[in-house]
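In this section we walk through a basic example: taking a raw amino acid sequence and producing a predicted 3D structure, encoded as discrete structure tokens. The instruction is simple. Fold the sequence below.
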Amino acid sequence: MVNQQRFTHCLWYDDQAEEAAKFYTSIFPNSSIGDLTRYGAAGYETHKRPEGSVMTVEFNISNLQFLGLNGGPIFKRNPSISYFVVCESAEETAALWQKLAEGGMIMMSLDKYDWSENYGFLTDKYGLSWQISQGKLSDTNGQKITPSLLFVGEQAGRAEEALNLYTSIFDDSAIRGILKNGPGAQDPEGTVMHAQFNIAGQEFMAMDSFAAHKFAFNEAISFVIPCRSQEEIDYYWNKLTANGGEESMCGWLKDKFGVSWQVEPVQLGQMLKSKDKAKAARVTNAFLRMRKFDLKKLEAAFE
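The resulting token sequence is shown next.
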């Protein structure tokens, strides 16, 4: 099943989505802010957000599409999903590190390591984790920013299983390379030290870690799958909830590893941006009651 659009990376905020979008687009090249939506009176009993306040803001940083969602103080980001950034000079690396570190928390200082001449790991002031590395864009297939999934706790040791599942579900996918732990390594032999894979034309990374991390995948970062038909919605929903996945509301789900996805018809975003507030309100009331999206019911509510 071919999907013509790449994933959007949804970042959950309490009320800082617009502020964060402005910050990120100011420090990364080839970045811009797109459409912004606001909460209406419809669905207040569910979302409890003030009418007129920012609901979502679309933004693009270095050609990777993001969506900031103000959903309240329910979910907090953690390093289970971080973003690996390739910088092509020492100057660029140092400048970006300084801007992201301000007000944040450094987990690995910017320094020389076995795998990189210049690398650091931090969480910025908005709770988003970054791996900054000096290197070549060709190593990540030309993608400057690459999401990296860290399988810890109950999921430790399942990174290879996960990337095999993801590349089997999405067309235009491939495993680019897997580096495994050998005998005597800190983590069990055969588990993933580092892997790079591509799903639906977008690069991802994955690692196992058996250290005593006190975090896990959650809804604070989710991957939005744009669908153009009910057939696509059904396909991705069924594949990702199979064998231990978990359905949630409003097109959200967790796969069997705990990674969050949103299976969303592209038509929904278009309807919610309608200048006809009555139509947008009807659609809002309809989708807030759904688990898996029913495209016909959404379109009927809109009309």
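Looking at the output, two observations stand out. The mean pLDDT is 94. The longest strand covers residues 105-113. In the next section we compare this with other chains.
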